[in-house]
Amino acid sequence: MYRNMRFYLIPLLFIFFGCEQEKESEIIFERLSSQRTGIDFSNDLSHDVNNRSNLFDFDYFYNGAGVGVADINNDGLLDIYFAGNQVDDKLYINKGNFEFRDISIEANLNLLGGWSNGVSFVDINEDGFLDIYISRGGPLEPSQRANLLYVNQGDETFIEKARDYGLADQGFSTQSAFFDFDQDGDLDCLVMNENGLYGTEPGAFYQLLRTQKGLMHGSSSHFYINDGGTYVDATAQVGMLRPSFGLGLSVSDLNGDGWLDIYIANDYFIPDAMYINKKNGTFFDEIKSRTSQISFFGMGVDVADINNDAYQDILVLDMASADHVRSKTLMQSMSASNFDMLVNKFDFAYQYMFNTLQINRTNNVYRNISHQLGIAKTDWSWAGLIADYNNDGNKDVYITNGYRRYASDNDFSNKVGHIQAKYQGKVPMSVKKQLYEEMPSEKLPNLLFENQGNLSFKNSSSDWGIVTPSFSNGAVYADLDRDGDLDLVTNNIDQEAFVHKNLSRELNLGNFLTVKTLSRHHESYAKVYVYTGDSVQLWENKGVRGYFSFVEPVAYFGLGSLKMVDSVRVVWPNGKVHQRYRVDANQELIISETDEEALQINNKNKKNKFTFSESKVINFNHKQSFYDDFKKEILLPYKQSTVGPSIVSGDVNGDGWDDIFISGSKGQPSQIFIQREGEFEKIENFDFLIDKEFEDIGGLFFDSDGDLDLDLYVLSGGNEYSEGSPLYRDRLYINDGLGKYYRDKNFVDSSGLSGKVVKEIDLDDDGDLDLIVGNRMIPHHYPLSSSAKILLNENGIFKNITEEISIGFREFGIINDIEVTDFNHDGKDDFIVVGEWTKVGMFTSVEGKFQDVSVSYGLDNELGWWFSITSADINGDGLMDYILGNIGLNTKYTASKATPFKVFANDFDTNGTFDIVLSKMYKGNYVPVRGRECTSQQMPFISEKFNTYTSFAQASVQDMFEDKLDSSLTLEVNEFRTLVMLSTSEGFDIMPLPNPAQSFPFLDCAVLDLNDDGLDDLIAIGNIYNTEVETPRWDAGTGMVLLADSINTFQLSEAHNNHFFIEGNAKSIQLLNRKERMKLLIVARNNDSVISYEIKR
After folding, report:
1. What is the dihedral of CA 1065, 1070, 1073, 1076, to 10 degrees?
2. How far is CA 1029 from CA 85, 135, 575, 931, in A?
3. Looking at CB atoms within 10 Å, which of 206, 478, 663, 886 has the fewest?
4. Distance from CA of residue 236 to its chain's centroid?
5. What are 93's strand-pairing partners?
């Protein structure tokens, strides 16, 4: 029994309701021929291995060039400027009706030759005509790379004056932006650069920068301050003298303070930079504190509000392929030692070779959810442009991709290495030429992802008419015919540029509103908000977007069927605000910064009836012991040794206040904190100190001996010790009645299993509490599971009766959580079990034995990476519902009923170590997720059997392991979403939580009626940091508050509104009673401090 649900986003709150049919796509873009438009520009490249004009000798040879649009002659139509690498730049005047005239020669362009990369527009002399600034590079001498400034003479001609203005930068410039960084009224300039040290190993790279004078400046992007009309290099002064491999640039207010900041997407190993304007003439790079992971090979960047929550998000492109064969042949493996060097030695941000979509958590801290959106892998991508291309009110994503020649192809790279070794580095020119011609090359279509709302995107490229294979680079959107939809212009290598006419208006797909914000400068950087009912759209008017390119700095809003918007609000960088009301659709609204400010009516949102305030009442810092799980188990998806800590609560001293137990890692004693009238006191415990070598994972306060105080059962787990180690044994600590605990020497757990969860249950109705113990995997043998246990309490003596009282529980699988509950409403305790690679186990007593009846509830085929199960009555019907916490959708792995995600496990190479192969479906066969290099490290025979990357990429799991696959353990997952089991009179309706709740691992959850509506609300946490180096951390969780309603839906209360925001590797959550109506929420984080919040209602 399933109920399909679609969800919609409103400002500051996600409201989720109802059902909606998927929208049908229509061909929206018509590609116009050069005969039709007159645009015949082609960025043709000719290599020459006799000099540096080739990819062997110049790493940026095929990085392509940008394109820009602006009204050069003030006739109201957008003209187009194409940058060329080896060919001349071209400027086309828009004559209307998609007809253009090439004026490049008469405009006096291209008189100096050179290699153009990026295009920007600025009215440098404030004469009312836009000038053109060209960022240049190429395999040329510095003097030949000097940037150009074409000053508009007002008659469609230009004079080059970069040197006169101090802007003839001679770096490997890629793109530039003009903006008033210090709010003094004039324009300053950032010139983004790559540098000449490509191919240098990170350690040697920084050694060169430290020892060679002037090299740092030559390897940096450059910042120029406007000093009375002349631009002065102030790179060091403003805090930006640091190495750069800049390919993507965006100037935007990234922290919401009204001052313009800078985002630079860097290629190679240099992390992206997020330069936050400190409002004192300096910038500070806050990329690590405001993000948790970024792209590795940063390409193009765009900053826009992708989910209509009135907060801007950040898109950065990389070069990961969605195709299995291409990903295994073209992508390099990430060395674990190099990863460790970058992250730990150099203190860089975590970088992964995928696109990133940094969603703004509404407090200007960003988390990557590109995998959830399905846009993480788009091949060798360059420009990413966020805009509404079908006028439905949701911003879509256009991505250009393709690379002219793939020197990174692993087999080709190996061949080059062998030839270099053969000739001892002195490769004959004839051999070099032959190698170059053998370099792989493949055109690919560009991509257009349709935003369907609710953080859901669909690849609509072919449906919408984006189908032509190409080597595309810079691109812009522009309303070239002024009809109210956005056309596309794309700069291609060795192919005529694309001009795609948008047919949305002709097809009546939606209305529009354009808002032009006039200020002293061409780019106003004003934020424009459009309000319609409960929804809001945001656009920041800036020109530099995507890759080396410049769009018209005007706000474009699709409105769907709306014929009027409630209000338009413009917020200028200087804080000035303009507002217009009841604005008709299908027009261009012009608002000037000099207009008189109107009386503002605040667009207020409903205030929560509750608040979270951080409270530092517990002083505990979890210190995770180091163990490298990947040394023996290279192919693990994530470390099994870092699943703690957990928090357990109970009144241990009988004073009416909740106390807590927090588990410690190996070498760190676990700890009990006693609450005394709201304050917490750490209780010293000698037995905990003695037992500190245990890796404590979980526990339970319960009365084991019937003396009416709470004793403590502690589970040990992890993956560090060998199978059967006594340090995996569970322990029982007896309460002395005053809150002090002593280890019960009579309790001996002889099994020594890696544990996770323990719950109490009265199995025999004798009044004393029995235990259900869920264990995880066999150490060093993931995903083989340890046996689960049911312990009968006989007057304080515990007996393992698992086989006697249960069927199917002992070997259930890797168990992460158990919920004791009466799910069949017969008045007796049942229990639900969840784990990794498992179904949802529903155990109820049948003829004296607990049996799994999950098939009766349709849960036997809900196979997930289940981490938690939580009881809550979310719809107020008096029946308990259940939240099944899963890994979520924000992972590089995918799973469905049709194509499950699988793991095969065996000692495939018979060397005594257990091997696993994570696998996905590709063209009808299961193939390994991991690459040839790391798979061969685990199983050396792989590289011998498949001696090329291509042969490995084309092989199925069956091809690799043949008959050994038949004897292997095979497990699968077909659901990664967190689900809700809604109780009904007939069983359960099963549905997913809303998409925002699928962005993170749902590891734990607290339940509380936050807004006094009689319904249980959810406070969820979870992250998993310790993934293997090629799998991005599951770290997008920042804590989430989900408010239930009576129609089985949720509202998402945002962090900026309730002040609940959890950073770090959060693992466990507990809710404690506080004084009166207050509660204390405690979150335990792996290798980090405990954080707590007071909740006021």
Report:
1. 50
2. 36, 35, 44, 12
3. 206
4. 32
5. 101
Tens of pLDDT, residues 588-610: 999 999 988 766 555 555 567 88
Decide: 785 and 775 in contact? Cβ < 8 Å.
yes
Task: For residue 941, give the H/E element and its range.
Answer: helix 941-945
Candidate from 425-429, 588-592, 725-729, 914-918 with smallest mean pLDDT: 425-429
Pairing status of strand 90-96 against strand 79-82: antiparallel
- With beta carbons less than 8 A apart as the criterion, state whether 657 and 676 touch: yes
CA–CA separation, 1086 vs 1088, rounded Å?
Answer: 5
- Across the beta sheet with 535-540, what order do the strands follow? 535-540, 527-532, 564-571, 577-584
Is residue 120 a contact partner of residue 544, using CB atoms and an 8 Å limit? Answer: yes
**What pLDDT digit, counting tens, does each position of 854-880 carry?**
999 999 999 999 999 999 999 999 999
Name the DSSP letter for residue 374. Answer: T
Q: Tell me which H or E stretch contains 337.
A: helix 336-340
Phi and psi for 21 in degrees, rounded to 5? -75, 145
Structure tokens at 744: 């019960």
Residues 714 and 692: their CA atoms lie apart, in Å, by: 12
Tell me which DSSP letter residue 622 carries: -
pTM of model > 0.90: yes
Strands 351-352 and 294-295: parallel
The pLDDT assigned to 602 comes to 59
CA distance 1043 to 12: 13
Q: What are the helix (H) ranges across 679-734?
A: 686-690
Alpha-carbon span 155 to 285, nearest angstrom: 43
DSSP state at residue 342: I
Radius of gyration of the chain (CA): 31
Determine the residue type at 1032: P
- The phi and psi torsions of 690 (rounded to 5 degrees) equal -60, -35
Q: Which of 689, 690, 662 is nearest to 674 (CA)?
A: 662
The CA–CA distances, whole Å, from 468 to 31, 40, 444, 446 equal 9, 16, 8, 7
Query: For 797-820, how does the pLDDT look when each residue is reduced to its tens digit (9 = 90+)?
Result: 999 999 999 999 999 999 999 999
- 838, β-bridge pairs: 864
